[in-house]
Amino acid sequence: MIADLSLYLVTDPDLCGERGVVETVRQAVDGGVRIVQLRDKTATDAETTAQLLELSRVIDGRALLVVNDRLDAALAARKQGARVDGVHLGQGDASVLRAREALGPEALIGLTANNADHFEAVRALPPGTVDYLGVGVIRPTTTKPDHPPALGVEGFRALVEATALPCVAIGGVAIDDTERLRDAGAAGLAVVSALCAAADPTATAEAFVRRWRAAGTPRVLSIAGSDPSGGAGIQADLKSIAAHGGYGMAALTALTAQNTTGVSGLHVPLAAFLRQQLDAISDDIVVDAVKIGMLANADVIRTVAEWLDVVRPPIVVLDPVMVATSGDRLLDQDAEAALRELLRRAHVVTPNLEELAVLAGRSISGWADALAAAEELSAMIGAAVLVKGGHLDGDDVPDALVDVARGVRREFPGTRIRTANTHGTGCSLSSALATRLARGETPVDAVASTRSWLRESLRESEGLQVGRGHGPINHFAGLWARGGVETNRAPEEIRAEWWQRTAAVRASIDELPFIRGLADGTLARDPFLFYLAQDALYLREYARVLAEASRLAPTPREQAFWAHSAEGAIIGELELHASWLTPDEGVDASTFAASPAPATVAYLDHLRSVAFGGDYAELIAAVLPCFWLYTDLGRRLHAGEFGDYARDPRHPYATWLATYADPAFEDATDQAITLVADAAAIAAPTARDRMLRAFEVSSAHELAFFAAPFASAVSA
Ligand SMILES: Cc1ncc(COP(=O)(O)OP(=O)(O)O)c(N)n1
Ligand SMILES: Cc1ncsc1CCOP(=O)(O)O
Ligand SMILES: [Mg+2]
């Protein structure tokens, strides 16, 4: 088996301090360390053996365990039942040939190589003697005072280019080196102080792992059945993996004969052959994530479980295919029992409602039941459960990610996309999710971006015209629309780009006679009152749209924010009536009962149509210009950009203009921008485009709204 060396912890008893080596290792492995090297220069062989026994218990197969220098201690610990995977030897330590002979062909043997001569000597060794090289130091480090000269990243690159053996970079490695070292050919980062001296080794390891994953192309394996029509099974998985920027691999559990109208045949190869496929992959390729789909029988399931126990991939997403859409059970009792065992080896499971009911052992008659069942299942298996609401009745089809052990319970609201092209949706979703996780996204972000992509792929499925039944989704809708691999964008980048997109609208607003007159006080009373009456009409409906955003919001924080904003809009409307739209201000009853002007109707129609579409991200993009452009204008008016109205006691609109520069509203605007930019950052490209379109259309309506007092029959 090829070892996953991505994050390699070398221990140091001094740097681990009071926390101790064992506890540091436990925490670092919790955070994603894949290989641990016990390195203690002063311990006796007996002490090293005892430590290996303890570490082996704590690591419990979740990472590989090797020992520095002490071949005899490794052998002794193995004799006493410890799982010691191998040794790391330096140029002056025991011979790697002797280590191979003593530890056997399956052991992991690492060798230090710091210069061209070392690499030359490695080439002369019989193949299979050494499994990886430790190459460094990258930069000077006090952790090993007798270290060789520093190579730097480019020196490392030059050395490792010449070997096919995986090379880990060691010596002075910090988290900010991650991308450059991975690019230079490192198979992993070996660190001592960065983890041993970390205040929180779990969080630090997680941060390293995320950076490492984000810096490379994830190698994602689908273990599933074949659908020759290409919409489900491994064919769908491979498309999903590619659509999310992963390298896809597939081990076949079964061959089906099927198309978009149904399944007409099934052939299950021997489980031993599945194991052969799996071993062929893991002997040669580091598997960053596994997606597991259809498993035909108990033999197949147990084979997958045994392989997982050996390889321990860092991400396992299991789609427990066990109940057909018709409600028929697809697995016999023996297989169901084996599947329950397999669930414990998964990190995320993605059941539909029927499967969740069977696995949690309870009936599900609505979304509340589904959430309760997901909690129970998550607690039972110690993994996250992505419960999918697609099989609920009605237009609301939420999903939720529930992970009891890690305190996650996140709902993702959604409205049903009306299409018959749902073939392979579950397969596609789970493999996309595995790929997103393998790219270093947090589970919540990975679910959010996967859902955004899936909704896009469902929406764009009609154009494919595949089959007469339930056709496939369009896995590459985003890619084809963009002409490139979809990647997440930084929220700050989106914020800047979207603001830039409003530049022309802002410049035009600034030139409007209404704004100029408002600022210098020359604006006549009629257009002013016209504007206020339209504003009041607008705010009332805008509040309803904000309330819809609150209803669709995925988190309680966002839900509260939009609800609070809706309340603010209604209060604004009431205040307009109380302060300005009164007989005292010369407003007669007809102005009061003003009907919406064309600009108001058009703006509200746009907002309502986006709200009706039920897409939260698009909706919050549509409501944003009212926050952003208004705040910007208020800030600049207040700053005297259009003349110093605030200092002029005779200015007729001074009190009105003062309300523009309300700090609480500025703060709310900032929050709204952040929520929209965050949502856009993880949206699929076409979804992000739709958000931007909604935002730009609303911005144009803002301009028309400010222009309306002079465009409409105000003077009449
Ligand atoms: C992964 C890894 N690479 C290099 C070393 C250094 O080993 P060595 O050259 O034997 O020096 P000491 O660690 O024994 O001081 C390593 N330990 N691990
Ligand atoms: C064991 C070892 N071998 C070469 S450098 C080194 C120590 C690296 O420690 P750190 O990661 O703290 O720089
Ligand atoms: Mg050594």
From TrEMBL:
InterPro entries: Aldolase_TIM, Haem_Oase-like_multi-hlx, HMP/HMP-P_kinase_dom, PM/HMP-P_kinase-1, Ribokinase-like, Thiaminase-2/PQQC, ThiamineP_synth_sf, ThiamineP_synth_TenI
Cofactor: Mg(2+)
Gene Ontology molecular function: hydroxymethylpyrimidine kinase activity; phosphomethylpyrimidine kinase activity; thiamine-phosphate diphosphorylase activity
Cofactor note: Binds 1 Mg(2+) ion per subunit.
Keywords: ATP-binding, Kinase, Magnesium, Metal-binding, Multifunctional enzyme, Nucleotide-binding, Thiamine biosynthesis, Transferase
Pathway this chain belongs to: Cofactor biosynthesis; thiamine diphosphate biosynthesis; 4-amino-2-methyl-5-diphosphomethylpyrimidine from 5-amino-1-(5-phospho-D-ribosyl)imidazole: step 3/3; Cofactor biosynthesis; thiamine diphosphate biosynthesis; thiamine phosphate from 4-amino-2-methyl-5-diphosphomethylpyrimidine and 4-methyl-5-(2-phosphoethyl)-thiazole: step 1/1
One of the Pfam families matching this protein, by short name: TENA_THI-4
Domain Pyridoxamine kinase/Phosphomethylpyrimidine kinase: 227-474
Catalytic activity: 2-(2-carboxy-4-methylthiazol-5-yl)ethyl phosphate + 4-amino-2-methyl-5-(diphosphooxymethyl)pyrimidine + 2 H(+) = thiamine phosphate + CO2 + diphosphate; 4-amino-5-hydroxymethyl-2-methylpyrimidine + ATP = 4-amino-2-methyl-5-(phosphooxymethyl)pyrimidine + ADP + H(+); 4-amino-2-methyl-5-(phosphooxymethyl)pyrimidine + ATP = 4-amino-2-methyl-5-(diphosphooxymethyl)pyrimidine + ADP; 2-[(2R,5Z)-2-carboxy-4-methylthiazol-5(2H)-ylidene]ethyl phosphate + 4-amino-2-methyl-5-(diphosphooxymethyl)pyrimidine + 2 H(+) = thiamine phosphate + CO2 + diphosphate
HAMAP family the UniProt entry points to: TMP_synthase
Role: Condenses 4-methyl-5-(beta-hydroxyethyl)thiazole monophosphate (THZ-P) and 2-methyl-4-amino-5-hydroxymethyl pyrimidine pyrophosphate (HMP-PP) to form thiamine monophosphate (TMP).
PANTHER family noted in UniProt: HYDROXYMETHYLPYRIMIDINE_PHOSPHOMETHYLPYRIMIDINE KINASE THI20-RELATED, PHOSPHOMETHYLPYRIMIDINE KINASE
Protein name: Thiamine-phosphate synthase
Organism expressing this protein natively: Microbacterium phyllosphaerae
Gene expressing this chain: thiE
